[in-house]
Amino acid sequence: MPTVSVKRHLLFKALGRTYTDEEFDELCFEFGLELDEITSEKEIISKEQGNEKAEGASDVVLYKIDVPANRYDLLCLEGLVRGLKVFKERIKAPVYKRVMPSGEIQKLIITEETAKVRPYAVAAVLRNIKFTKDRYDSFIELQEKLHQNICRKRALVAIGTHDLDALSGPFTYTAKRPSDIKFRPLSKTKEFTACELMNIYKTDNHLKHYLHIIENKPLYPVIYDSNGVVLSMPPIINGNHSKITVNTRNVFIECTGTDFTKAKIVLDIIVTMFSEYCENQFTVEAVEVVFPNGKTYTFPELAYRKEVMRADLINKKVGIRETPENLAKLLTRMYLKSEVIGDGNQIEIEVPPTRADIIHACDIVEDAAIAYGYNNIQMSLPKTYTIASQFPLNKLTELLRHDMAAAGFTEALTFALCSKEDIADKLGLDISATQAVHISNPKTAEFQVARTTLLPGLLKTIAANRKMPLPLKLFEISDIVVKDSSRDVGARNYRHLCAVYYNKNPGFEIIHGLLDRIMQLLDVPPGEKKGGYAIRASEGPAFFPGRCAEVLVRGQSVGKLGVLHPDVITRFELTMPCSSLEINIEPFL
Amino acid sequence: MSTQIQLTHSRWRGPGPCNMTSHIQEGRTHFGAGSGSRRSGAGSGSGVSGLGKHTRSHLATAMADGPVAEVLLKRLEAADGGLDTANLAAELGVEHQAVVGAVKSLQALGEIIEAELRSTKHWELTAEGKEIAREGSHEARVFYSVPPEGLAQSELMQLPSGKVGFSKAMSSKWIRVDKSAADGPRVFRVVNSVEDEVQRRLQLVQSGQVEKLSEKEKSELKKRKLLTEVTLKTYWVSKGSAFSTSVSKQETDLSPEMISSGSWRDRTFKPYNFSAHGILLDSGHLHPLLKVRTQFRQIFLEMGFTEMPTDNFIESSFWNFDALFQPQQHPARDQHDTFFLRDPAEALQLPMDYVHRVKRTHSQGGYGSQGYKYNWKLDEARKNLLRTHTTAASARALYRLAQKKPFTPAKYFSIDRVFRNETLDATHLAEFHQIEGVVADHGLTLGHLMGVLREFFTKLGITQLRFKPAYNPYTEPSMEVFSYHQGLKKWVEVGNSGLFRPEMLLPMGLPENVSVIAWGLSLERPTMIKYGINNIRELVGHKVNLQMVYDSPLCRLDAERASPQTQEAA
Fold first, then answer.
1. Which residues of chain B from 214 to 243 reach within 8 Å of chain A, CB to CB?
2. Lowest pLDDT segment from A524-538, B3-17, B64-78
3. Mean per-residue pLDDT for A428-451?
4. Lesser CB count within 10 Å: N end or C end of chain B?
């Protein structure tokens, strides 16, 4: 969930009233925001770098507000204020208009070379804008928030904003060999080739995260003006030539990306938020974009969409009984201008370009519910009549767990993920013999594979509890995972029961006694001939030679028990003899 | 602690006289064997001198039978006023502890004696002091080792008392060194005989005549570490109001013989020490997190919810994300958040008809949706992963439900492991348990969701709820559930919920007017709060503190309605 940080006094000034922190917190809660933290720049620096560094930093109160991940229109002060004011019916939602320039329209021409690296571009102009320091900061901050969220760290969309007065159109969006791109990027004093820049930015804490997006492509995307001035090399860096400042009056905005829909949304969001400061408020100057196929589109789209919903549908989904008129009012408060039409039971809802999150009627229903107030909704119980049942495997597990404890064993709860070493090397097995599933992106060796046996987890539990008095008697009934090509995903779980006895003596008879008890509980009689169970001498690399037996139930092997091999004991950093039992309990269902 | 163990131990070891020493030995043998049946941890022997909190111990009582107690009573009868335990020990030639034990056991019998704690200081020889009292001072030993014809200094220095004795004997002018001797410096006697004052003084102390030494002499010997002053805690014992020399022998405990013969009627029994702990039983224990899991299962079953199968940790991206209408560029699908599989890397089978409906809904919309309008890729959906939520299992269950015609309403739940490739800290692990509830029926509303949540949380002992609008990719409307925490005096999030999006349900084939409400919470958080655990590693995984498992109480979530702990518990 993105967090937007706004100066409290600016927020209250823009809202046209002040709130106590509690009142504002309440307002946020009602609207679906969260006042996460009340702090100041000074406090933040002091927390992160110590009091000394915080010396002289601003102590203006900051609100850190958590915004739902799909509400891009609330990612800056301007949007938050507009949303809250409309919600509180202080203002009517502004109408955003795309206008044609008095002179010639700006053009952005996309060449076909971009197709393989970053095929889409959209653009718009904010004409006669008036920045102040705070507005400018908010403008930069919004781009950063969009980059981190909907733009997926610039992979899907990257935004470039430029001083239009320093450039001359038409603009060309193309892709070139990195060695053929040369320009002076933002905050550098000289020109570099794209190759050089990629090297330089490897150590740049901010930009290094974006390099991978184009690094291995033969051609890098780049935007030129008609004089060959580089506007930007998306998604990495803008040129210094067209850098915007607080004094910039005309801003050219380009969004390039791999996701056309999101590029259009991002452009819409930026221009709707900041056209507030244009001479003609809420108007945005159009830009023509010529695609490689020759087709021309005009941006920003600033599309208003009309949806019609039956009022009773909204009532039914929320569980309220409001008149269509009231519902229309509620929706209007959520920035969705609505009115009752037709037979009086229909509501026409206008979805503005700021509300890209509204993609289905259910989104509209939610907004009606929010405006109504979630906590005003009458609670009721559904009349759904059902008869419950347990998942048989879990039911058996629950029953067995209690009797394992009654038999004197203590339950452990170990991780399903572990290292290859745990399930293979330490047990004297080759990893290929385990049929384990392998994780492709583990951050540490602890998460290389899913366990194929519960034993390592129990032995590690003992190792971590060596200070405890002996004997240690542990068990676990849980799932292991192995590859299985008969399953849709190519792997499956098995429910295993594992128990270990750790003491000065191996205690095989105790583990054997436990097996007998388990079989008694499962109503399996002893003796192979009677269709019962038996144990038969066996071997396994984890066991001491001659001290391992296979558990056979109705002629089928369900697991093994035995005295662990001293090498196994040592590899798990244990010092005492230990016997173990591990069986699959699924045959007993 | 160990005293308690010995006490309870003696309670079960049956009758029979035993004196302090043998009992302690027995206790030590017990611990020494490392039999490990005690879980409270072993300590060293009990502090015997000084009346501890276990004065009225069975142990002490047992000693009343001993000969020391008998002698003590006899001496006390003859004594004028009273007697000192240290003196008595010295006279009897037994350890002082044994006398103190007898005092305690007699005290346990009532007003037979009175004992007053006294601490007295007295002088004792150190080990070196004792040696000197026996063998003579180092300087004297040096003097005597020098023969009339003298001794090479180097040779003298090698004697055990050489170094210390030499300088002392020199300063006492008992010996001299002739440095001009032919084969190196040579030591000669200066006087014919010496008076070993140090030895004499130490012998005085040894024979109890310390008062004959001056303070100066004592402090000099103390400086030489030959003498030390010790504080002795003794008891001044006098007759009590019920003094008697004939203390009737008490029985330790009932025996089968006493019951069959009826002899118990004529016996008196030693009192129990009820402040001691009982013996630690040798029992098995259930894990606290799984005890809480049992309770949550119980709650769902009480509410008529059927358990979903969740025994598949490996899931395809399709069921984990795509089926839930979670777009393929969603950050949750990032390598940083999700464990993907290298082997088996891809799901082998997907329900292709359904997959196509899902693909269309994502890329083009449909079912009343605008869709996400992006290029949906089958390869991305095939990628196998460790499920990041049990909602993947809910999706499978709902898909199965949708295939059954006609539609029958359903209530489902699950509690099982999920996996996240997260940064680990005190409250986050790479795997945790998720609790999920789902209701599918015609015409379910947000009000129904809230009503079900109210009942569910009431069963957890949480009654003060409030709902906040939220965003989840696969529910709309969505609401976070908050409960008022009495301890923290604020609202804390206890769960997340919502109505599944039609874009998720309709491609499955569920009827249009069927709504599905769902909610989820983690199992670890309420458990940590309930059992007061701050570090999740102490609860889940092999680093668990087994003592905590042994000690954890029953889990009764609704029985603690008033407790602020449970308020947060969810």
1. none
2. B3-17
3. 93
4. N
CA distance A444 to A447: 6
The set of residues, in sequence order, having a beta carbon less than 8 Å from that of A209 and lying 6+ positions away, is A153
Q: Compute the average pLDDT of residues B297-314.
A: 96
Interface ipTM above 0.85: yes
**Mean pLDDT estimate for chain A:** 94
- Residue of B315, B318, B420, B446 best to disrupt the A interface, most CBs of A under 10 A: B446
Identify residue B45 by its one-letter amino acid code: G
Backbone angles phi, psi at B213, to 5 degrees: -90, 145
Q: Do A491 and B36 touch (CB under 8 A)?
A: no
CA distance B550 to A468: 11
Contact B125/B227 with Cβ under 8 angstroms? yes
Kindly list the distances between the CA atom of residue B195 and the CA atoms of B8, B200, B205, B227, B483, in Å, as whole numbers in the listed order. 59, 9, 18, 20, 91
Q: Which long-range contacts (CB under 8 A, 24 or more apart) does B557-560 make?
A: B557/B292, B557/B295, B557/B299, B557/B459, B557/B460, B557/B461, B557/B526, B557/B530, B558/B458, B558/B459, B558/B460, B558/B461, B559/B461, B560/B461
In this predicted structure, what is the pLDDT of residue A453? 97
CA of B269: how far to CAs of A367, B249, B253, B262, in Å?
79, 9, 7, 14
Q: Please count the other Cβ atoms lying within 10 Å of the Cβ belonging to residue A268.
A: 28
Of the candidates A391, A319, A385, the residue with the CA atom closest to the CA atom of residue B410: A385
Taking contacts as CB-CB distances below 8 angstroms, the residues of chain A near B450 are 374, 377, 379
Sign of CA dihedral B519, B536, B290, B488: negative
Residue A321: list chain B partners with CB under 8 A.
none
- Would you put residue B147 in left (φ > 0), alpha (ψ -120 to 50) or beta? beta
Q: Identify the DSSP state of B13.
A: S
Local structure of B164: helix, strand or coil: helix
Percent of chain B with pLDDT over 90: 39
Average pLDDT over residues B210-237: 84
Contact assessment for residue A460 and residue A419, using Cβ atoms and an 8 Å cutoff: no
List the strands of the sheet with A171-176, edge to edge.
Answer: A237-238, A230-233, A220-224, A171-176, A106-110, A287-290, A296-299
Residue B304 to residue A391, Cβ atoms within 8 A: no
Answer whether residue B37 shows pLDDT above 80: no
pTM above 0.80, yes or no: no
Q: Is the confidence at residue B357, as pLDDT, over 60?
A: yes
